[in-house]
Amino acid sequence: EYHVTEQKDIQPSVINAFELISMSKGLNLGNLFDEEQ
Question: What tens digit of pLDDT does each residue of 2-27 get?
Answer without folding.
Answer: 666 666 666 677 777 778 777 777 66
